[in-house]
Design brief:
binds glutamine, 283 residues, two-stranded antiparallel sheet, alpha/beta, Helicase, Ruva Protein, domain 3, 41% helix, Rossmann fold
């Protein structure tokens, strides 16, 4: 006898939503649907038109297990093991910051200024999402990503391999092991003030690596350090791009101007919040 179907697709989804709501998961509907689609290999369309399709016992068990994990505030991306960013799929683990949609603003700003064949340095590369996206959407650029975390670099390397993109990854405390010059230096460094971290949502506070979040007492530590040294590694006329926290634009712009950067500019993300600061190195 064939394996008995245990539940219909939409009923299973409803059960997932209820369990997540009971655990105060904010986007219960979205998360319940995305987990179900991942388990069943389906799309949004299936909920609309194939809600009465039975799921297999194996799918049911896997879904219940995923929902239990999400109820404990394990991020969706850690349950599934990946996150989409710039239309590409990046593997993630507890050793890297989950790529954020806000960071796409940074990538898009850099792409506006990037020309074929440029050399790009991504400082604090994490999953490699910024560097690998820039390389994917440009031609003949050379990319170097550095990070202090060896485990993060392992994930970045795996992402490069899976996406079929060539990049160099080096373990380095900021510029310590970096050599040569670049036309573009880009960074989304840790920028949360240390005393704010305990107030972040559990998904971030407990699952994103602390070293990817903690920007020191005022959150600006890494901007000061990177701006202090970046000029040594930029060609004259080269550009420095940062993602920033939405209240950090004035401070980061001032640091860059004081360090001699020209045309320092702030760009907003899709929510209208200050998100990127850039400038041109005068040499
Ligand atoms: N550059 C990586 C990202 O944007 C990691 C950033 C970080 O660890 N602060 O995802």
């Amino acid at each position: 006898m064939a394996e008995a179907a245990v539940m219909e697709y939409e009923a299973l989804y409803r059960m997932g939503v209820e369990k997540l709501k009971a655990a105060q998961i904010t986007e219960a509907e979205l998360d319940a649907r995305l987990l179900l689609e991942a388990v069943c290999g389906t799309t949004r369309n299936d909920l609309l038109v194939h809600g009465n399709k039975p799921v297999t016992e194996q799918q049911y068990k896997c879904y219940v297990n995923f929902i239990e994990k999400r109820r404990c505030h394990i991020p969706l991306q850690h349950i599934l093991g990946y996150q989409e960013f710039m239309g590409l799929t990046f593997q993630v683990s507890k050793d890297v910051l989950i790529p954020r949609q806000d960071t796409e603003t940074l990538v898009e700003e850099v792409l506006r200024n990037l020309h074929d064949g440029m050399r790009i340095l991504d400082m604090c590369t994490g999953s490699g999402c910024i560097l690998l996206s820039l390389l994917k959407y440009s031609n003949d650029c050379v990319g170097v990503g550095c990070d202090l975390s060896e485990k993060a670099l392992g994930i970045a390397q795996e992402n490069a391999r899976q996406l079929g993109i060539e990049a160099e990854f080096i373990q380095s405390n900021l510029f310590e092991k970096v050599s040569g010059k670049f036309e573009m230096i880009v960074s989304n460094p840790p920028y949360i003030p240390s005393n704010v971290i305990p107030t972040l949502m559990a998904e971030v506070r407990e699952y994103d690596p602390l070293m990817a979040l903690d920007g020191g007492e005022d959150g600006l530590l890494f901007y000061r350090e990177i701006i202090r040294d970046a000029g040594t590694y930029l060609y004259p006329g080269g550009m420095l791009f940062f993602e920033i926290g939405c209240e950090q634009a004035a401070d980061v712009s001032r640091y860059m101007e004081e360090a001699g950067y020209k045309e320092v500019a702030v760009c907003k993300d899709l929510s209208g919040l200050d998100r990127v600061v850039s400038g041109i190195y005068g040499g």
